[in-house]
Structures are given as structure tokens and as C-alpha cells.
Design goal:
3 domains, 440 residues, alpha/beta, 20 strands, Rossmann fold, Protein-Tyrosine Phosphatase, Chain A, 23% strand, six-stranded mixed β-sheet, single chain, nine-stranded mixed β-sheet
Length: 440
């Protein structure tokens, strides 16, 4: 084999591996990108005399001991299959990190369709009040960025996508504790169907020592959380608290100070509280963490109040389930929600979404690839309008709004029909709103 490590693309995860694996031997590495390599990454490769190719994948890519791939690479990808056929070791950044980095005090993993990022950030926030704690994985920060740190006293909280779980070996229980937020239709094109998607999520059981699941998942030998009594984590919505129990230890955590909107975020907070209590974090610290936590940008972000109107950027809404949760968060304002929706069409079932919109939205402004199908699915009793451009939809929404309205940007699909990613989409929405109201 010519190389020790080659890279199929140089995205966030692969670049982190390259930066933190490089040890003065450029001949050990080769980078192959189907697109132009971003300037910062290209400069690194050239500066360190690492061989690379752009806008193609040549046979040189497979002349290696180890092929690094992005988690989004499908199992039927031609290069992936050929590498396996030749006996080349194929890994993602997370699997390589888990196999080579030691020791870490504790590792936690969170997966699910929606709420992963919020739950991971909340766990990390609570733990960081008394420990060194890092949020890594699908959250956008590769664990390989920590490869050269002493983590023997640190907590690592992994956000795991179904892609990342799919690529992990199921022969080792890497994580001390894992949690599942929920499962709804998503990434069906990648997995080939809903059953396969569910199977990939539930494989979290195979790579974890202990697991906590929502009560609707009937599994023996796991912890459970929900609203019913007798669970390890009981959400008492009327009492604004969560009751936790682990191996004879019990406590109650006050949730009255939670700043996150919606019952789905109450569930996320309860899951985070249990994960911290599992590691003997006390109720007071959990309460302090929950009460001081503010959700990240693009997640139900109330970024502007203007003349009695609240503007909410929920660009992280990348499927129908997330959009439903966003609308449900404003039940108290159900007569005043003006919804901006539409994105890349992932083939989600809109039947439940349609009924939620019918009871919770004042008017819907639709744009993007999924706009027409959304329009057709929404009951005619709801005022709705199609637009070719997002700036036109946003401007119309602002013009028609009145004091007391909530202007909710929650696309309900991935950003790739019009934008590079959900962050760029959210930034576009906020910049457009500010530009439009400035002259008013």
C-alpha cells in the first residue's frame, strides 16, 4: 500500500482527522475531492506537501491502508464498496477516534430525529458547571479536534446521526450512556425506507452500556422517560418538574425556569437531566444548568421583536416532525402565527402536519422545492400563498402582520434546494427581515 491514510473528500470530519493525524510525513496521506477544496483546507494541504486531487476520484484513492469517509457516504457507494472488496479499512472520524483515543472519563451519546443538538448542548452545559465537558459529533465539531488533549477527566457528549451510527462497528459498547430523543420520518432516501432508518437509530443499543429511551419504545433492560409514573424519568408538566431515579437514588428537578419553548423541549430537558443525574450530578446543579441554558442560533431563536411582532428563526427545522414541534410551541399564540415554510422535499408524510397547521397557524407563506406539495396538503380553510423567491414571501408576511403576531420561519425540510446549509438559510432569513423593516 502506498499511503497510510487517504480521504474521500475533505469536509469537517475528514479535515479534523487530517490536521490532527499529520506528523511530518506527507507521503503517508492523500486527499481526493470531487469538488474544489475550500481555500483554508487547500492551503493546509499545500503547506504540508500532501498529495491531493480535485474534481475527480482516481484509483490512487484506494492505494491505502485506511480510507477516511464522511458519515454521509452511503454503504452502496462505488468507492466504498470497492475499498471493502480490496480489504481496505474504511472508517469515519468518530469510529477512528473511539478506537484510538484513550482514556476519556465518560462518554455519552444522543441520537434521534429531532432535538439531538439541543439535548447535547444542554447536557454539556450542565456538566460544564463542575467538569470539563465537550459536545462533539454531528453537532459540527469533530472529536478529532480533541485528539491531542488530555481527556482523562473530561465528559464527551456525542450527537450521533443515523449515518454515523450506521458506520460504527457494533462489536463494542463505546458509550457509558446513550439517549434517544424520538424517531420520525427522515433520511428515508439514504436508508431506503423507514424501517431501515429506525433500525439504524435503535442500533444505539448495541454500542452503549446503558440506554434511556422514550416510554413508547418497549425494550427490556433499558431506562425510560416520559409522562407516566414508574419510569426512571417522569415528566410532571403540571408541576413543572421532572422526577429522576437511578439504582435506588431519587431526586426531583424544578423545570419552572426552562427558557426553551414547547413540550418537546420539556422532554429534551428531562432527558438531559436524567443523563446528568446518571453520573451523580445533583439536582441543584441540574436546575442551574437548565435555567441558564439558551438554545443555539437557528433553533426556535427569537432574534427580533419589532412593533409588537416576534420574529423566530427555526432554520434547523429540517423535516415535518420538527415543523410540527415548532408550531406546537406557540399553541398559546395559535391565532397569531404566520408561518414561512418550504425546503428540499424529502418525501415526508404531511398528513399530521396539515392538521396541526389548520389549528395553529394564521397564514402560511410557502417557497422552495416542497412548497407546492405543502400547499396541496394544507386544508383550504387555512390562508396560504406560494412564492417563487424567499425575499418576496418574507416581505409579504411582514406587510400583512399585525402587533401580537409571531412570524415563524420553520422550513420543514433540508436547506439544499436553495442554500448551502441550514445556518446559511437562517442567516439569510434574519438579514432579509432586518433589511426589510429598516425603512419602515
Amino acid at each position: 500500500m502506498k499511503y497510510k491514510m487517504t480521504f474521500l473528500g475533505l469536509g469537517v470530519s475528514n479535515f479534523a482527522v487530517l490536521k490532527n493525524s499529520f506528523r511530518d510525513n506527507p507521503q503517508d496521506f492523500f486527499v481526493s475531492s470531487a469538488d474544489k477544496i475550500a481555500e483554508e483546507k487547500r492551503d493546509f494541504v499545500i503547506q504540508h506537501n500532501i498529495a491531493f486531487e480535485e474534481c475527480e476520484h482516481s484509483a490512487e484513492l484506494l492505494d491505502t491502508e485506511l480510507l477516511m469517509i464522511s458519515p454521509s457516504v452511503k454503504l452502496d457507494n462505488e468507492i466504498y464498496r470497492e475499498a471493502k472488496k480490496r480489504g481496505v479499512d474504511v472508517k469515519t472520524d468518530i469510529e477512528l477516534f473511539l478506537e484510538t483515543k484513550a482514556p476519556v472519563r465518560h462518554m455519552i451519546a444522543i441520537t434521534g430525529t429531532n432535538g439531538k443538538t439541543t439535548t447535547v448542548e444542554l447536557i454539556q452545559h450542565i456538566l460544564s458547571l463542575s467538569y470539563e465537558a465537550y459536545a462533539v459529533g454531528n453537532i459540527g465539531y469533530s472529536p478529532f479536534e480533541l485528539m491531542n488533549k488530555d481527556l482523562s477527566q473530561a465528559f464527551l457528549v456525542f450527537e450521533l446521526s443515523s449515518f454515523q451510527i450506521e458506520h460504527l462497528s457494533k462489536k463494542k459498547r463505546y458509550f457509558d450512556l446513550s439517549g434517544l430523543t424520538n424517531i420520525a420520518q427522515d433520511h428515508l432516501d439514504w436508508h431506503g425506507g423507514y424501517d431501515a432508518y429506525v433500525k439504524s437509530k435503535m442500533a444505539i443499543l448495541d454500542i452503549s452500556k446503558d440506554v434511556i429511551l422514550p416510554e413508547e419504545f418497549q425494550k427490556e433492560g433499558v431506562y425510560q422517560y416520559g409522562v407516566n409514573e414508574g419510569l426512571n424519568c417522569v415528566i410532571d408538566e403540571s408541576g413543572n418538574r421532572v422526577i429522576l431515579s437511578v439504582e435506588g437514588r431519587e431526586t426531583a428537578v424544578d423545570l419552572s425556569g426552562v427558557k426553551l419553548k414547547g413540550f418537546h423541549n420539556l422532554r429534551n430537558s428531562a432527558l438531559a437531566a436524567f443523563c446528568c443525574f446518571y453520573f451523580a450530578i445533583g439536582a441543584k446543579q441540574i436546575e442551574k444548568g437548565i435555567n441558564t441554558f439558551v438554545s443555539g442560533e437557528h433553533r426556535m431563536e427569537v432574534f427580533l421583536e419589532w412593533e409588537g411582532r416576534n420574529f423566530v428563526n427555526d432554520s434547523k427545522s429540517t423535516n415535518a416532525h420538527a415543523l410540527i414541534s415548532a408550531i406546537d410551541s406557540f399553541r398559546k399564540n395559535s391565532g397569531n402565527v404566520r408561518l414561512l415554510a418550504g425546503a428540499k422535499d424529502k418525501g415526508d408524510d404531511y398528513s399530521r402536519l396539515s392538521s396541526v397547521i389548520a389549528t395553529g397557524v394564521k397564514k402560511v407563506y410557502l417557497c422552495g422545492e416542497s412548497a407546492q406539495r405543502l400547499y396541496d396538503s394544507i386544508h383550504d380553510s387555512v390562508e396560504k400563498q406560494l412564492f417563487d423567491q424567499w425575499d418576496e414571501a418574507i416581505e409579504k408576511c411582514i406587510q400583512e402582520s399585525t402587533p401580537g403576531d409571531v412570524i415563524l420561519f420553520s422550513p420543514g425540510g433540508s436547506s439544499f434546494d436553495r442554500f448551502e446549509n441550514y445556518k446559511k438559510r437562517g442567516e439569510y432569513f434574519k438579514e432579509t427581515v432586518k433589511a426589510l423593516i429598516k425603512p419602515l
